[in-house]
Amino acid sequence: MLIIGIAGGTGSGKTTVVNQIIEELKNEEVDVISQDSYYQDTSHLTYEERTKINFDHPKSIDFDLLVSHLKDLKDGKTIEQPVYSFKEHNRTGETVITEPKKVIIVEGILILTHTDIRDMFDIKIYVHADSDERLIRRLKRDINDRGRDLDEVLWRYQTTLKPMHQQFIEPTKEFADIIIPTNRYNTVAVDIVQTIIKERLA
Ligand SMILES: Nc1ncnc2c1ncn2[C@@H]1O[C@H](COP(=O)(O)OP(=O)(O)O)[C@@H](O)[C@H]1O
Ligand SMILES: O=c1ccn([C@@H]2O[C@H](COP(=O)(O)O)[C@@H](O)[C@H]2O)c(=O)[nH]1
């Protein structure tokens, strides 16, 4: 089993890169695990309380569950990946049955901050886009897809997202084996990662 970690700031293009990488792989060969599925269960809080959570701090992630799920997959066991709702800021209570495959791609802003998880990755990738580009993408995506408005996105950017990015996320670039610049669509980098995967699968 090959485990690839793909980190990078919000809006850097992690999900887009993952989708491009897996385009040529067969479903039965690859699992994608998103760190977003592992935000802490906050059902004990009201919606108002949940909106105030710092979702860019490592503590917001249930890393224990993520570690145990990755270990299970490595051991050939099936897991139940939680489903997360950005609109509700909480897990939905549903799960997705995820079976072990030859390649596992784990993507998320904070995945390289955790030593145990970092050590499980065979390849560590950091996706980089400039912060103004990421903010523009985040604004468009959160307003169009995640039910936010301009004020909410800018408030979160200033209060938590930018400082957490500088404190926790950007420094993990030093752990990366490969850094993919994505201020433009980077097909060359995607081709290189696809080639590495195909070689490892052969
Ligand atoms: N290289 C790129 N150039 C322009 N827009 C991009 C690029 N990569 C991603 N996007 C767009 O930016 C937004 C955020 O990308 P996404 O892949 O969801 O980022 P992340 O998963 O890192 O938060 C999406 O709307 C996506 O279509
Ligand atoms: O309930 C939530 C949980 C997280 N967020 C924001 O999501 C991004 C991480 O997701 P990406 O897909 O990598 O952008 C993070 O910056 C959190 O601020 C949220 O808005 N609501």
Radius of gyration: 17 Å
N- to C-terminal distance: 12 Å
**Helical stretch count?**
7
Beta strand count: 7
- Side by side, the strands of the main sheet go 2-5-1-6-7
Write up what this structure looks like.
- It is a single chain.
- Helix 1 (14-22) crosses helix 7 and helix 5 crosses helix 6.
- This protein has one domain (2-201): P-loop containing nucleotide triphosphate hydrolases (Rossmann fold, 3-Layer(aba) Sandwich), CATH 3.40.50.300.
- It has a five-stranded parallel beta sheet, with helices on one face. A two-stranded antiparallel ribbon has the order 3-4.
- It has seven helices and seven strands; from the N terminus they run E-H-E-H-H-E-E-E-H-E-H-H-E-H.
- The protein is globular and about 50 Å long.
- The mean pLDDT is 96.
- It is α/β, with parallel strands linked by helices and 202 residues long.
- Helix content is 41%, strand content 21%.
- It has helices at 14-22, 47-51, 63-74, 115-120, 131-145, 150-169, 187-201, and strands at 2-7, 30-34, 79-85, 90-98, 103-107, 123-128, 178-181.
- The structure holds adenosine-5'-diphosphate (ADP) and the ligand O=c1ccn([C@@H]2O[C@H](COP(=O)(O)O)[C@@H](O)[C@H]2O)c(=O)[nH]1.
- Residues 10-11, 14, 36, 39, 55-56, 86, 89, 109, 156, 161 line the site of ligand LLZGTKA7.
- Adenosine-5'-diphosphate is lined by residues 8, 10-16, 137, 141, 182, 184-185.
